[in-house]
Amino acid sequence: MGEPKEPKREAKEKLLQALQENRNRVIGAAAALAVLIVILAGALSGSGTRQTSLGISEETESEAAAEEETGASESESAGESAAVALEENAYPQITALMESYYRAAAEGDVETLQSVADSLSEDMLIYLQKRSEYIESYQDLTCYTKAGPVEDSFVVYVSYEVKFRDVDALVPGISPFLVYGREDGSYYIYEGEVEEAVNAYLEEVSAQDDVVDLMNLVQVKFNEAVTADEDLSDFLARMTEELKVEVGEALADAQASEEAETAEPDGTLIRPGEVRATEVVNVRASDSEQADRIGKLQTGDVLEALESRANGWTKVNYNGKEGFVKSEYLEPVGEDLENAGEGDVSGTDGGEDAGASAALPASGTVMVAETVNVRKSPDEKAERIGVCYQGGRLEILMQQADGWTKVKFEGKTGYVKTAVLKIVK
Fold first, then answer.
1. Which domain holds residue 366?
2. I need a surface site. Which of 34, 70, 293, 380 has the fewest CB within 10 A?
């Protein structure tokens, strides 16, 4: 009892959701710019605590004496453990673990994140990667610990200041973690499902006065930072909205990739030579859905096919290494891209599968129904800066009266013919 267990339910306990939401966001990134702290039901009342000069509460002598007189049961002993005052940077190994985690989170280092945190979901890894693009570093980390639910475990609250890219001000934050010890003496962050007893224990710890005081202290610092800097406040709100879009798109791509692999093979055989991915799809180490994933192809990525197999897989040259991709999600690269017609659209001419032919929005990101050329200027003879393949995305900036639409494609500004720009409904 009290040990981590394998996930068996679709939804994690309410507490774990709160922990994950809090620890993986910078305080203040919410639209209301409020501190994202863990607020749990069942807060202890009349706990007999008093405030220290640092604002951290400690157990009074009268409380300890009362517990000795009544005789603590096993569950009450756990409560006493939770009530022990927060310790600051008391365990070098825990501090080193958290420094490694936050360094990896700032760099988007998935391999390190997976090595220090157990049971990190792919969704959370995607979020951490996308968020790292906004972060330069985490500074002034301080680890506050309380005893965990079992021997050699800890509840850890990490306070820090975030340095965002191109932002001068530092932003205060705090996040909670559940940490367990390994047999070899090392520690890891546990991100998985917990038992009811552990859940109840974490609720009790989070309701302790010193933990609440610590959270409130960081909230005050955060409020002062954003109140004093309007640009910072605007940046945090903008970052939140951008992350929603970026993470949503990345999750959709990941889902499409997995769905592509589970589809039944259609007997497609690919000839050796250059091929193009027709959808987002994983590259595997061997011709099996259970094989290790060594990479991912985006729609329109071009690579070399080496061998097509009867089992529905094609061996490819992926970044200088052999890999395997489901054949049905590859197509030969023909002459259509090099010799696109005057209409600046490769492939179909806007027929049936452009059922897609909805009115273009004035702005926003759209998925195109046909492959289109992106030009450097609004002229069919202008330099082509790229090709947006069927299923790819363009950000519409402005529709012009001359029949061209200004777009952003792969970070570059370009133009496509409005007449051939069809979007997926």
1. 345-420
2. 70
